[in-house]
Amino acid sequence: MAFVNWLIDICNPLGNPVKEDHPPSNAILWVHPVTGTRYFLEINKATEITRCGLAWVEALRRNYDLATATDYLADFLAKRDIFSRKLYLEEKGLNFGDQKVGIEGICGFIPLAVLWSELPYPGQVASGEDKKLSLSGWLRGENKPCVRLADFLLLRTGLFFALAANHVPPQEWPFLRLTSLLDGSGVFGLQEGLSGLVPIPEELREAYETASFLAGYPDAAGAERVSGTVEVVEGGVFKVKEYYLETNRIGEIRGASVLLNDINRYRYIQMFRELGLTPESIVYAGGGHLMAVVPAGEGEKVAEEIERLHREVCLTARAVGVARGTSASELANFGKLRSRLTEELVERRSVLIPAWDTAEGAIDLYHEGFSLGKSIPLRLAKPRECCGSCGIRSAVRVWSYEDEDRPLCASCLRKQLVGQEAKETVFAREYRRFWQARDERADLRAAREIEEIADDNNEIAVVYADGNNFGPLFGQCKSLAELRFLSQFCENAAYAAVFTALKENQAFFEKRAVEIIALGGDDIFLLVPAQAALPEAIAIGEHFDRLFKNLTDATANPTLSLGVVIAGAKTSVRYLFELAQALLKEAKKRVYAARESLEGALDVAVLVSYAAYADNIATYRGKTLCKNGAKLTLRPYTFSEARRFIEAVRRLQTASQAPGRSWFYGLRQAVEHYGQQVAELFFNYQYARLTDNQRETLKKYWQLLTGQSGDPGMFYERDGLRYCPWLDVVELWDYVGAGGETR
């Protein structure tokens, strides 16, 4: 049975840690709840990490008043990974002490304190005084998963508030909140310096123990002892791409992204505070969705406020919220409860179609100081004039772009004003902060218009990605802690995959802008220069799959699929996105057909090659790229196939003895217009005319291109089908990241 050193993997999450069959005898063992990787950590290191974490907490309590220290602690625990926590400490000036990890030089810049909340929660701490555990071996039994300590502490606090709020005077909650956030946090070490926490009153003990049970492992024995009632709220935005893509103007697309992201990142938390609830009631908030557990009687108010928040801030973004009362014992059976909430969400969405159409709203709702920027004098639109961006609603004002005057409705105008004030996407700032947390510098150039993203051929690429089998993955969550961890893990994987891929391929973006429109959960949507499209898409997929990989067993874990569309910069982004969605479906078919696939897939289309698709892509390709039982394309590609493909094309572009591009054009013409026998004869004739060095070069890269040994040909066989690779070579020649031509 193989294991991986947790400390090495968490400090270098895209690395390749060595598997060890015999972990140290004094190590704790557990399974990652998402990837299934088996981890070990020596108990003395767990103890030292715990000691540093609790020392940081004690310094926090010494330097700040109770409310401020507790807010800082809760914010720290809520960060999605160790790098986010490291940056949080630096930005807030909370990096007390400088003791850091020094394991083989891999993570020498990581403060030990940020690892503390990432430790596994063993499920052995219910309440009361903490004691140092003499742990070794499996924490919860052989091959059982453990959630993070941070998730347990936050969820217990939110559940405790939901169960006991009606019995706790408001002035006492800050003390109990701090106790709940820290009780049990010293499970791997002595809880030094944390004496003085207010004990849980006897009359609240039952609620506290119920909260502890539900926040940990409610599938364990003891569910019959829980009691109390709460309300579960779920909601958020839907039809989000329609809100983003009512226009082709970068400013408006960016403004929509800024508004929705601000709701997710800031306003939800502030909303809970102003409603008199504790932020720890939020189980997760990301990817446009929110789930929370609140006191009985508060759920409907929160659900309505979710809808009002989007209506006031975004004006036309569709959002729903539903609430359901439940007993603590029902909450322990989390899967069934989630199914009922999903049904209610679907029903509520049907009520809100068509979307509300609001012309006015409080832009600063739950975010004081958020504004539309400096007041700009704009002339009134003509009566009954239609919005020039969305083409749906009545215009209210006229906006002067450099190349045109455009009447805008209230919603599109708000997007434009917010996008102009932001000057860059929120993800550009996140990109800088991501690398700052890793002690590196990196930046993305912001675009004022889509033409600034385009390459030298004035072409852009839309990259849209979505996870494979993520619905069942979320449906399999047995507890709130698993759901919270999975939500943050997915979001972190999306950020890490995209940001790492952008930095690796930054040479392709020189003097060009990149626009990240959506990034959250397993959903990725960005615009890049066309010539960088394939390298960027492949790298995103590879990194995402690596983060979900089971490092100890060769099992089929969740993967990513991508759709990539390349077209002229003047093409409607909404139209390109719809094509990217269709390509994404084709890529998913490739993954699902493989059943036990260990990697994702991507599909790509170049619009300028065949003009616009009059029909759906699958039908179009069936008519044009399938001839007499042979497929004239290798697409969709798995990531390893795509990586080999672009490497082969790059070498063909740069090899001095390779045939020129026109030679491959001739092959394309032949295979498109003639039958297989004639096409093969044409290839053999052209191949024989090459010099010996050219034939040797082509033979060398044929294997890289197709995975086949031997002499190249017009076709090759794979899985009982005949394929021709040469149309792909010609069509994608300019988009492999190097050697492309300016037309």
The average pLDDT score comes to: 89
Number of helices: 26
- Give the radius of gyration: 28 Å
Q: What's the story with the biggest beta sheet?
A: 6 strands, mixed
- End-to-end distance: 56 Å
Descriptive notes:
This protein is of the alpha+beta class. Helices cover 44% and strands 15% of the residues. The protein has 26 helices and 21 strands. A hairpin with a 6-residue loop joins strand 3 (27-31) and strand 4. The radius of gyration is 28 Å and the shape is globular. 50% of the residues are buried.
SSE blueprint:
Elements: E1 3-5, H1 6-11, E2 19-20, E3 27-31, E4 38-42, H2 43-63, H3 66-78, H4 82-92, H5 112-116, E5 137-138, H6 149-164, H7 173-182, H8 205-215, E6 229-238, H9 240-244, H10 250-274, E7 282-286, E8 289-295, H11 299-314, E9 318-327, H12 328-332, H13 334-351, E10 397-400, E11 405-408, H14 410-422, H15 426-436, E12 459-468, H16 470-475, H17 480-504, E13 515-520, E14 523-529, H18 533-547, E15 559-568, H19 573-594, E16 601-606, H20 607-610, H21 617-624, E17 626-627, E18 630-631, E19 637-638, H22 639-654, H23 661-673, H24 676-689, H25 692-706, E20 716-718, E21 721-723, H26 726-731
Parallel strand pairs: 1-4, 3-5, 15-16, 18-21
Antiparallel strand pairs: 1-2, 3-4, 6-8, 6-9, 7-8, 10-11, 12-14, 12-15, 13-14, 16-19, 17-18, 20-21
Question: What's this, in brief?
Answer:
This protein has 26 helices and 21 strands. It has 743 residues and is an alpha+beta fold. Mean pLDDT is 89; it is low at 99-107 and 125-132.
Task: List its salient traits.
single chain; 26 helices; 21 strands; 743 residues; 5-stranded mixed β-sheet; 15% strand; alpha+beta; globular
